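Re-running the complex after MR caught last week's input typo. The corrected sequence lines follow. Everything else is unchanged.
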Amino acid sequence: MEKLIITASICGAEVLKSHNPAVPYTVEEIAREAKSAYDAGASIIHLHVREDDGTPTQSKERFKVCIDAIKKICPDVIIQPSTGGAVGMSNDERLQPIELLPEMATLDCGTCNFGGDEIFLNTENTIIEFARRMAEKNIKPEIEVFDKGMVDAAKRFYKKGILSAPMHFDFVLGVNGGMSAEPRDLIYMAESIPEGSTWTAVGIGKAQFSIAAMAIILGGHVRVGFEDNVYLEKGVLAKSNGELVAKVVRLAKELGREIATPEEARQILSIKK
Ligand code: KMH
Ligand code: ZN
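Corrected-run output:
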């Protein structure tokens, strides 16, 4: 089986220090968390950034400072900025980090209820605009899907030439308003994508490590991190993103998957620098 790519979602836009004091806000904290994940075996950092007080921002300047700080201590890691940002941000706000020409960025492929009155809005025109802007800049999209219909949307965009092969999907399972995180859900998603595509999976909250184990067995890749889950095990907060990544590395070892380096991840994902 292919080596396992581990993505660390170190920060997110919604999770707070009140959920786990190790959630990073400042540039130094973000760099520290990226390094802990990288040292533990992550080859991709899925990156959101914050103001020092924890407010989520998509500011190009803030992204640049954070990316530079991460690159200084993890020179070969793949940085994947979010273009999802936080609920309620405008498209222009959300797109700012792609101006920095990262190797990858997320492309959210549909709208999702996040609970209460919160709607993570991604109209078809938004998705098309984001996909085109990324393609112009040769940025590999990680197609984030919260539901099966979003996989079908990506396939339609591919047929229209808006997305190109090989596509790389991120199945985000267990989001409030999205698909659940049962074994059958992951199998259904993995069997729904076009041949030749790659995929990673993330289980939100308590589904983090069951989804990780299933992804390892099924030949997919894994995302873990504070954006998605702050616990190492029931009732025990993780002290760092590195602890979450290290747990995936242990699972992979037990299940016979080797861990991909950033360079190997680039090859697996067909990322051309
Ligand atoms: N924070 C969510 C509204 C992404 O990074 O592309 C969107 C999100 C998805 O996290
Ligand atoms: Zn994100």
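None of the earlier attempt is carried over here. The chain has one domain: 6-269. The chain has a mean pLDDT of 98.
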